[in-house]
Design brief:
2 copies of one chain form a homodimer.
Chain A lengths: L9 H18 L6 H14 L4 H4 E3 L3 H10 L4 E3 L2 H6 L2 H6 L4 E3 L4 H10 L3 H12 L4 E4 L3 H12 L6 E4 L7 H15 L3 E4 L6 H15 L9
Parallel strand pairs in A: 2-3, 2-4, 4-5, 5-6
Antiparallel strand pairs in A: 1-6
Helix pairs in contact in A: 1-2, 2-11, 4-11, 7-8, 8-9, 9-10
Chain lengths: 222, 222
Amino acid sequence: MEQEIKYVLPAEIEQESMRIIGQELAQRGINLPQETEAVVKRVIHTTADFDYVENLRFTPDAVPKALEALWSGRAVITDTNMAKAGISKSALTQLSCEVHCFMADRDVAEAAKAHGTTRAAAAMQKAAKEYPEAVFAVGNAPTALLTLCELIRNGLRPALVIAVPVGFVNVVESKQRIFQLCLDAGIPCIAAMGRKGGSNVAASICNALMYTALGTLDPARL
Amino acid sequence: MEQEIKYVLPAEIEQESMRIIGQELAQRGINLPQETEAVVKRVIHTTADFDYVENLRFTPDAVPKALEALWSGRAVITDTNMAKAGISKSALTQLSCEVHCFMADRDVAEAAKAHGTTRAAAAMQKAAKEYPEAVFAVGNAPTALLTLCELIRNGLRPALVIAVPVGFVNVVESKQRIFQLCLDAGIPCIAAMGRKGGSNVAASICNALMYTALGTLDPARL
């Protein structure tokens, strides 16, 4: 006989998932700091991967500073349309924030070609001009992070850098570099050390911060 | 002194990443079957997670049957706009395929409310009516898979089911159920067993199949 699967609505699934994640963290003897708990748990919820307990690093006060940025309506910049699609539009609207991804813009493609660089690098250049105090959420391109490093050395002061590209080439190094640079410059940064990450992780971190900023962890209330 | 990071263009990163993945698979003594190799490697490329070697399951001839579907221009249906955003538009165009996600449609929200079900379930109902022979790529909602199970029992014969939701509630069970049902009904299915998966994984599998259908694994050629 086929096992019964209880039909559960998304908001209940969310709540029950967070309960299971909390329970399994406790079983592993892991006590997350209150400040970073919502972000770490939501990334585990997005990936079903407890490695992120170890991988995720936060500069001092990254979360409270990120919340301030969201409360003041800073723009969110992503390096993929996939990350942009994964960010809660309802939460953005309630916070009077906007999300932008310049990867598919014609002028970005032209600038990349003209300067022999990547569209991701050119997209960050454009974003830094138009929204210098934004939240930069990078889930895909190491070249986007390297470009942000250059821009920061030249004075850019983003509200937050989310540095979570995934992959095998330049990924580990670029995340280490931007995290250290942000640490030195006093710029809030949340990074996923090691190879893992992705557009889904970038979106998940943005959503966790927005839900916290809105005083709720329950997307059904958003 | 700061470590030098060689500036590499995306197509080269892609190639080098696949080489590293191949090398690490060999070091682990893993020999992937030729038929499924492109899909498994691309999912590892997307997630940096070698667990997918074990997690990904294919019904017999799922890949060749999926390629036939793509060559004949079948539509691709996703259960999130994030997965839709992650699917290569260039590859879709070259194959004369389209991708649709009905999650944000007003009639889907109304149908979900009227029937006390989820938008994901209602979106699958709509897709099954409009594109009964599509590729269904489900990376998020167990209820989308359970709805597809019902529809298949009532005669729906999709070209391929990609069953890769991520999470902690109903995810494992719904993926097991649809995989067994597809196996019994002779419907091609690619599933990620266990908790892991996601919209990124769904998009990655679609892209791997499309790149293979186009006779190339190199997105720079697309």
